[in-house]
Design goal:
heterodimer; A: 373 residues; globular; B: 16 helices
């Protein structure tokens, strides 16, 4: 990418100082509108996010904002794992059990209220380890739920969608009749606005009598379904994943297609001479040649996973419960509806740091590749 | 693939299998769009909701043209029954229930202005970066590449706060509920500059050299020589930005309350949230929101696909 330098530098000829000054002025003049725009609407808000996240700024508040230090981050990131003691009979000291013989524990809320150290914490989850029960309590359980969902989304969607995109790219890279039509069809959902996609799939996911339910019933001879796709906490998020893949995979397909077309055909010919079959050609020629493209696709899809917002906002509003909550949805709720701009900024700063980490990993991996070459 | 078969038969079977997979995938990608369009032209709401439980959801029937009439949804069942068929009833109802034309105009105006001004501003910024020698070029370029990483979501909340404090052109303070708040922040855009930059550095050097000798100024060279030779990158940037702005939802949700300035996406969600939720009307709305982009896509398919391919060729 940096081969630019040599290519564009006009041949070094001695230039009169007036011309140089003029050239400088012209350059800045042409750059000015974009530079001003990027400064006001990107650089300044970006720095503001850090500053705001250290205050309790509210939208539309008459009171001046107070500096709260790392208070927002403390609430956001605070998490405690508390061992739970079984309930004991106050007289005999015996462990209490219910009718099924299960050990009884105090209610999380009671436990959190019992100790001043736990002030401001709410239940996030419970788990068993080594025969003991633990309570996970957080300053902002919604944030953790959202972040976990983003990771869940990335973990499922990134490999699935990338592999699917590669498969599609290979299919539409064949030199066969009508391939352009298929390419256009697979790409078509990309141009449909996400709000519209969310609305269409909301109807398709209709519980009871719905198109997706009908399809599953038909292909399973009546054994599957009907499911309450968006109303079931276990199914809601996977349902969102499916439509996200449907909408986004065409984009990655085209990027892979561009990568495939850059592979020199001599490589395939050489592999054929060496007696490789189709599968070996894929693993020994195609995949290694697509390395950079794959890294780009994986990183771009991972970042998209953390930006997840429109689908959940339109289809489920983060529900049922908080089953489809995401980081950005939480930030928008806090910022726009609770008017807590300071706190919402803290959420988006954490979001940015994650995106930054993902991008840095990409750059490191690509650099390593260059070093090897 | 059984190997004992003659070569001819084997290749035929391969082709059949290949096309079967591709056609099945085509169904997978097309079915939601077909469902939307077909449901939108069915005039009877009851029919739509019962058709979704089967293949009929994708079949436009009964084949009878029904012109739109007023207040069909409130009519008694026997009247609605008589008006069952295909027609623009749902589209008509959308216009009756909401100022759809206004939303369409808002989206069209915001998108074309942002794309148009963006092309001008960003290509102009990329020119000195790619083709002029000046102090600070490398630093500016590095900053622009670094800015690409910042996702819009990371600046949305502070930007929302910032725009409430900016002076309004017509007097007063606060950009919320205006067109400019949906246009101006998105004109300059680091990724567009980068795409232009990459294209401009590939243009042959003699292009500007010759003109310089003829005594042309830099702006003239840019306008009369660089721009006409860079149509593909202008198309790429225009298409990517068009898709982005036309579909943008988070930002107008944050800063637009009044219907006067509301774009189609937010109006779509609003309409979808209204009860009773009528499938036909909502899907007619969705169809009309998609149609402009889909039509453009079908017309400039090759360009769309090339634009997306261009985003991947980085590094």
């Amino acid at each position: 990418m940096r081969r630019s330098g040599e290519k564009t530098d006009l041949k070094r000829r001695p230039r009169p100082p007036m011309e140089r000054i003029k050239e400088n002025a012209v350059a800045w003049l042409m750059l000015a509108p974009a530079a001003i725009g990027l400064t006001i609407f990107l650089a300044i808000p970006f720095l503001m996010a850090f500053q705001l996240s250290l205050t309790d700024t509210r939208l539309l508040s008459p009171n001046p904002p107070q500096f709260v230090g790392l208070g927002n981050y403390r609430q956001l990131l605070r998490i405690h794992i508390i061992p739970m003691e079984p309930l004991k009979d106050p007289v005999t000291g015996e462990i209490q059990r219910d009718e099924d013989g299960q050990v009884l524990y105090p209610r999380p809320r009671t436990l959190l209220r019992s100790d001043r150290r736990y002030e401001g914490l709410q239940e996030l989850a419970q788990f068993h380890l080594f025969g003991r029960r633990f309570l996970v309590a957080a300053g902002d359980p919604t944030f953790w739920k959202g972040l976990t969902n983003n990771f869940y989304f990335a973990l499922v969607v990134v490999p699935l969608q990338s592999a699917f995109a590669l498969l599609l790219a290979i299919l539409v890279n064949q030199k066969i009749r009508g391939v352009n039509l298929f390419r256009a069809l697979y790409f078509m959902p990309v141009v449909v606005p996400m709000v519209v996609v969310a609305v269409i799939w909301f109807f398709l996911y209709n519980p009871g009598v719905g198109t997706i339910n009908a399809f599953l019933k038909a292909v399973s001879w009546g054994r599957l379904g009907p499911f309450n796709w968006l109303g079931d906490p276990k199914l809601a998020f996977p349902s969102i994943m499916l439509l996200s893949i449907w909408q986004g995979v065409g984009f990655q397909m085209v990027i892979f297609l561009a990568g495939l077309q850059e592979i020199p055909s001599e490589l395939y010919e050489a592999a054929e001479v060496d007696g490789c079959n189709e599968i070996q050609k894929f693993f020994f020629v195609t995949l290694p040649q697509l390395r950079n493209t794959t890294i780009f696709v994986v990183v771009a899809t991972t970042i998209l996973a953390f930006q997840l917002f429109t689908q959940v906002q339109v289809m489920t509003g983060g529900g049922p419960g908080e089953a489809t909550m995401t980081t950005i949805l939480h930030a928008v709720r806090e910022g726009r509806y609770q008017l807590r701009a300071g706190y919402a900024s803290a959420i988006t700063v954490v979001f940015f740091l994650i995106v930054l980490a993902v991008s840095l990993v990409q750059r490191a991996v690509l650099r390593e590749e260059r070093a090897i070459e | 693939m059984p190997h004992g078969l003659p070569y001819r038969l084997r290749t035929t079977m391969k082709a059949v299998l290949n096309y079967t997979v591709m056609v099945l995938l085509a169904f997978f990608f097309a079915f939601p769009i077909v469902f939307m369009a077909v449901s939108a032209i069915k005039t009877n709401e009851t029919q739509i909701t019962s058709d979704v439980g089967g293949i009929l959801a994708f079949v436009p029937y009964p084949l009878k043209w029904v012109p739109p009439v007023n207040r069909l949804d409130d009519a008694p069942p026997e009247i609605r029954e008589a008006y069952t068929g295909l027609g623009l009833q749902n589209f008509f109802d959308v216009f009756r229930r909401m100022p759809f034309g206004r939303f369409l105009w808002n989206s069209a105006f915001i998108t074309t202005t942002t794309v148009g001004l963006g092309l001008l501003v960003n290509s102009m910024a990329a020119y000195p970066l790619a083709r002029l020698q000046w102090k600070g070029r490398n630093i500016v370029l590095a900053v622009i590449v670094a800015l690409i990483i910042i996702p819009f979501e990371a600046v949305a909340v502070p930007l929302m706060l910032l725009t409430t404090r900016l002076p309004k052109p017509g007097g007063g303070v606060g950009w919320h509920d205006t067109y400019i708040v949906q246009i101006i922040p998105f004109i300059a855009d680091a990724f567009s500059i980068y795409l232009f930059y990459q294209f401009f550095i590939g243009l042959p050097k003699d292009l500007d050299e010759a003109a310089l000798i003829d005594g042309a100024g830099r702006l003239r060279i840019f306008w009369h020589i660089i721009v006409p030779n860079s149509r593909p990158v202008f198309a790429t940037v225009a298409i990517l930005k068009f898709l982005w702005i036309w579909g943008s939802y988070l930002w107008p949700l944050l800063v637009i309350r009044l219907p006067e300035y509301r774009p189609l996406t937010v109006a779509m969600q609003e309409f979808f949230g209204q009860y009773p939720r009528l499938w036909g009307d909502t899907l007619a709305f969705a169809t009309m929101t998609t149609l402009p982009v889909l039509a453009l896509f079908l017309a400039f398919q090759r360009w769309f696909i090339q634009s997306v391919a261009a985003t991947g060729i980085k590094g």
